[in-house]
Write a structure and sequence with these properties.
16 strands; alpha/beta; 5-stranded mixed beta sheet; 33% strand; Alpha-Beta Plaits; Pectate Lyase C-like
Length: 220
């Protein structure tokens, strides 16, 4: 078993699993792994999985990663009893799993979509690249764009109103989620001038599509 492992996860980001309790060893292993993967992890969702022997190191490890411009979104532990940390905690023992027998399909497209191009996916769709103007992305599940989204996304294609659209730079002329659609392009507030761009999430709330910064959405 490796002392530290970094794995890409289906939902946008990465999970760092730490199996050792010696900080010097942990930091050394992280330095080696991040030399290869840190540029992919910045601006991604990152979870830190710890065990009962090292969960008390959560804040120290999170601070080490923060110095590398990698921010831990949650600490994952079997039992949070006795754990003191400033990072949100996910306790595996109290997690309710859905679709346990079959993992939801996730499709990945690597590259940039040019004007006139379109892609469709059954399930969730992750685009590692930019979706440029006049291009289209469709998914029966969620859409995650790890880049600019200037084309038109349709998440929840087929009637899934619980789907979301995520992008590092969310600025399409129109968004469709399930049975809902944003206003026409000439009225659409998404066409505002982009200043201080941050990751954003679009979702349906009380019958309308709402856009929030990713940080706000995590807290909602």
């Amino acid at each position: 078993m490796s002392k530290v492992e970094i794995k890409g996860k289906n939902f946008l980001g990465f999970e760092i699993t730490v199996n050792d309790s010696n900080l010097d060893v942990i930091f050394s292993e992280l330095e080696s792994l991040l030399a290869v993967s840190s540029r992919f992890m910045k601006n991604s969702i990152v979870t830190l999985k710890l065990n009962d022997l090292n969960k008390n190191l959560a804040d120290r490890i999170a601070e080490f990663l923060r110095e590398k411009d990698i921010f831990v979104n949650a600490v994952v532990v079997d039992d949070k009893k006795g754990l003191k940390t400033h990072v949100p905690v996910i306790e595996i023992g109290s997690t309710h799993f859905v679709n346990e027998e079959r993992e939801k399909e996730v499709s990945t497209f690597r590259g940039n979509l040019r004007s006139g191009q379109s892609i469709k996916a059954n399930g969730d769709l992750v685009v590692v690249g930019n979706v440029n103007s006049n291009s289209y992305v469709y998914a029966t599940g969620n859409i995650f764009v790890l880049g600019k989204l200037y084309g038109v996304p349709h998440a929840g294609y087929g009637g899934n109103n619980d789907a979301i659209v995520f992008a590092f730079d969310l600025n399409p002329p129109q968004i469709r989620i399930g049975d809902y659609i944003t206003r026409s392009p000439e009225e659409n507030v998404l066409l505002k001038k982009r200043v201080n761009v941050v990751p954003e999430v679009a979702f349906v709330d009380e019958g309308v599509i709402v856009i929030m910064t990713y940080d706000e959405w995590l807290k909602s």
